[in-house]
Write a structure and sequence with these properties.
Largest sheet of chain A: 7 strands, parallel
GO molecular function (chains A, B): methyltransferase activity
CATH topology of the largest domain in chain A: Alpha/beta knot
InterPro entries (chains A, B): Alpha/beta_knot_MTases, Ribosomal_eL30-like_sf, rRNA_Methyltransferase, SpoU_MeTrfase, tRNA_m1G_MTases_N
Protein name (chains A, B): RNA methyltransferase
Distance between the termini of chain A: 56 Å
Number of domains of chain A: 2
CATH class of the largest domain in chain A: Alpha Beta
Radius of gyration of chain A: 20 Å
Largest interface: A-B, 36 and 36 residues
Organism (chains A, B): Neopusillimonas maritima
Strand content of chain A: 15-25%
Order of helices and strands of chain A: EHEHEHEEEHEHEHEEEHEH
Domain tRNA/rRNA methyltransferase SpoU type (chains A, B): 112-249
CATH architecture of the largest domain in chain A: 3-Layer(aba) Sandwich
Strand order of the largest sheet of chain A: 8-7-6-11-9-12-10
Structural class of chain A: alpha/beta
Number of helices of chain A: 8
Number of strands of chain A: 12
Oligomer: homodimer
Helix content of chain A: 25-40%
């Protein structure tokens, strides 16, 4: 177990970098829920389990986390230092430093996956991860230009979905098209087929695009399927995370019911 | 037309209050898109159309807005002042001050509506508005405890959906239940019926709850229908805005196809 008293401590400084999303190899899981989710799903203990000294005994959940992690991972922060790591206004006094799991892209992509093309808003990214996990989609491929998947805002918005998914970052989606053995379905505003009339294969690669610009034209052009969601006329399009939820669950509905 | 040079100007100070969500009677519509949407849907010109003097000629869109509003609404801000109103990092140099439309709750609620119980996150609120508008739902009822509907963050996230909806704020939803002439359908984690098996009437009041706590038990208890979304097991529940998108569009799908 380590104790840190000074903000000049080198280890503490590395935590600050991770908490600000400035570390390539370390992510900061802030708060009880994300730490619990990591332990529930994660194969390895956290690199560091960081506790506010003055608040370890404050709640049953924090005590349980404290007991669940090995002693050599534990770091006790002197009061005041935790505030430097908190990304939310009222931090809970606990967080894990973890290495994002390495993800190897398979040679052949044969299952239902979600492809994200330059989704920029961290809240949208996190919601998309959460929706994919809930829909039973196991892998998400994020293009270069997407928000950093393991940044604190994306982690917070995904509520632990990261640990149920295989997340591939900085993908060249056009190059990966060759590995795709399931049809690529672009969600577009002006698709050729209504989602509700489209024939959806059991395994499919869903493709969602940037909030403002949509899907890169070159990528949309190679998609075998283009679907739109029939919505009220003269109305602004749906948010990308809402549109994706509708498509993923329409797909799920069909195969749940054996339709 | 007015010109404001000083940050001590009383009118400018009132703009700052509105831009910070601190005004009860005025909302700040920031950026080209929201201003265009207001003009497209709004019955009245904005109270004030605020332009950064140095940027009026910077884009065709801003010039068009400048021409579209009456002279007495126009306010030109000296450079530097606009930054005090910008809620996003790179403001566009234009915004409208408007009075949120007054909404009178009907004696009898007979159409499909969306009820929100203490939805706290402004991004979720805005996405919910955007989804409701896209699904053709005309009215949203927000309980006391919801994020302020006309705050800048909710406006930004809703992308203009406010102007296609009738938005009721600070509602006592339990008291309003008496006015409801359509079934109230609570979206819950452990509902009694799967969304995909539920009989959904043509007109329905969808009820979504708080991000952490869900729907108030007393309110859930009076709902005629409780539906859950069948999702992958052992996975964190869906985000409230994603879950609502799935329900609203499943409902829309059924009546689009005449099912």
């Amino acid at each position: 177990m380590k104790q840190i008293e000074s903000r000049d401590n080198a280890l503490f400084k590395s935590f600050v970098r991770a908490a600000n999303g400035k570390s390539r190899n370390q992510a900061w899981l802030e708060g009880v829920h994300l730490c619990q989710a990591w332990l529930q799903h994660g194969a390895t203990p956290p690199q560091f389990a960081v506790f506010d000294t003055s608040r370890v005994d404050q709640s049953v959940e924090i005590q349980a986390l404290y007991r669940a992690v090995p002693d050599q991972s534990k770091v006790l922060l002197a009061s005041g230092l935790m505030k430097k790591l908190d990304q939310v206004e009222k931090g809970q006094g606990v967080g894990f430093i973890v290495a994002p799991p390495a993800a190897v892209i398979p040679e052949h992509i044969k299952e239902t996956v979600l492809w994200l093309d330059r989704v920029q808003d961290p809240g949208n990214m996190g919601t998309l991860f959460r929706t994919a996990a809930a829909a039973g989609v196991g892998s998400v491929y994020c293009s270069t230009g997407c928000a950093a998947a393991w940044s604190p805002k994306v982690l917070r918005s995904a509520q632990g979905a990261h640990f149920s998914l295989t997340i591939h970052e900085n993908c060249d989606l056009q190059a990966l098209f060759n590995r795709l053995e399931v049809p690529l379905a672009a969600m577009t505003l002006q698709g050729s087929v209504s989602l509700y009339q489209a024939k959806l294969p059991h395994h499919i690669a869903w493709l969602a695009g940037n909030e403002g610009q949509g899907i890169l034209p070159a990528l949309e052009a190679i998609a075998q399927l283009k679907v739109y969601i029939p919505q009220a006329s003269d109305i602004e399009s749906l948010n990308v995370a809402a549109a994706t939820a509708i498509c993923l669950f329409e797909h799920r509905r069909r195969f749940l019911s054996g339709e």
